[in-house]
């Protein structure tokens, strides 16, 4: 299935395309997170990102279970949205000299990715329920809940662990 082609004819095709999209996205995230972890200077931020990297690997395994339940081979389809979010994060990181400001940018960029994933998983759950694919809803819901939790942890790091305050006080 390609971007803007007529390969998607049914709701099942649309669900499969969405699953391929998020599968690709999760794989790209596992490639991008190590760089964010290495760049972050706030210990809580680094820990949060490391933990989410491990969660993301488990999310990929759950998605592989989803494909198996549907009788499909796990595969991804290029996702311009996640590619763009990751590219923007890389470009932003390259433009920031102050490490405390960079930490605030890492939080913001990571949250943009989380929000994308939350949107995708919510939609996939709704479609799966609508199509009667109850056997995959549990896997998708677990991933969605982890994305919500990751976003909440990033909020905590930014607001309560001092990332935003430290960045605000940068010269």
Automatic annotation (TrEMBL):
* Presence of keyword Coiled coil: yes
Signal peptide stretch = none
- Coiled-coil spans in chain: 46-73
Q: Per its UniProt record, what Pfam families does this chain match?
A: DUF892
Keyword check for Coiled coil: yes
Write the record's keywords in alphabetical order, separated by commas: Coiled coil
Question: Which CDD domains does the record match to this protein?
Answer: YciF (cd07909)
Query: Gene3D superfamilies annotated for this entry?
Result: 1.20.1260.10
Name-wise, this protein is Ferritin-like metal-binding protein YciE
Q: Which organism is it from?
A: Bradyrhizobium ottawaense
């Amino acid at each position: 299935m390609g971007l803007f082609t007529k390969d998607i004819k049914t709701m099942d095709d649309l669900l499969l395309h969405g699953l391929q999209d998020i599968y690709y996205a999760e794989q790209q995230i596992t490639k991008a997170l190590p760089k964010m972890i290495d760049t972050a200077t706030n210990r809580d931020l680094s820990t949060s990102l490391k933990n989410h990297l491990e969660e993301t690997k488990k999310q990929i395994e759950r998605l592989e279970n989803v494909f198996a339940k549907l009788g499909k081979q796990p595969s991804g389809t290029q996702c311009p949205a996640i590619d763009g979010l990751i590219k923007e994060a890389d470009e932003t990181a390259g433009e920031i000299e102050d490490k405390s400001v960079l930490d605030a940018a890492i939080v913001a960029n990571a949250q943009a990715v989380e929000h994308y994933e939350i949107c995708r998983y919510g939609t996939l759950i709704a479609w799966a329920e609508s199509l009667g694919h109850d056997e995959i809803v549990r896997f998708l819901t677990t991933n969605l809940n982890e994305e919500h939790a990751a976003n909440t942890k990033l909020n905590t790091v930014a607001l309560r662990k001092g990332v935003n305050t430290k960045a605000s006080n940068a010269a």
